[in-house]
Amino acid sequence: MLLTTVFLWALNLSVTRYILTHGLEPLSYATVRYGLAAAIFVGMALVSERSLRVHRRDLPLLALAAVTLWLNQLSFVFALNSTTAATIGLVLGAIPIFAALFGLLLGTERPTGRFWAAAAISFVGVALVAAGSSGQHEASLRGIVLGLCTAATWAAYSVIVAPLMRTYSPTRMSAVVIPTTWLLLALSGLGETSGQDWHVGWEIWPLLLLATIGPLVLTNVLWFRSIHRIGANRATLAANLQPFVAALLAVVLLSESIGPLQLLGGLLIALGLVVVRRRPRPSPQAA
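The chain above was modelled as a monomer; its predicted structure follows.
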């Protein structure tokens, strides 16, 4: 289940990049995709739990989650509209570092020398990915910045929804947050969506369906079941494979290229994750 989740998340970058370069505008794509996902999650919640009710005290946090996810999707689609899927895939490897930074701000993480070393290594890696992308015609600094915004907002979203998961199932929470996110996307993209030429290639529609049902709906179920079975730490370590799987799929499926600097940057990002997750061994106890 975990490997399927990682594969679908990674595949989504190539699928989205293809859709955006073959007819659909970024906000048109995001609006249709999240509208379909919202309908699916609401239907799933009503069938499995027969209710969408949430506590009034949780409404501000749910609203904040929806706004953060809205910003995440804006960054995501415009990043992939600006630069290659391989580049964005490598940049998204910095998500755990951003999550740790938000943990420091909220007081749930303690600042250590190990963490700051890991953060420095990872962001040097991001800088190398950006430098390696600068010579490519399709890549741009704008795409790199938006990729970092995508990583930061996803990390923030993950931190925000963590306390909600103690009260609500992932399905019910998604049935509330995703329709709200869809509404924000629809309002943001109203002009672009109304002017969209919907006469695109036939392959766009099955790919859009795949991008919705796979990376957005199915992974929601598989990810949390994986955490339940093997624990969050082991699941997250496996999820760190996603940036390299995403880059590999972009090379194979979209014929994108990864330069030496980008590859070195991706390796440094991965090294940063290893450093931040490594724990010192406990001292032997006296018998």
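Residues 220 and 227 are 11 Å apart (CA to CA).
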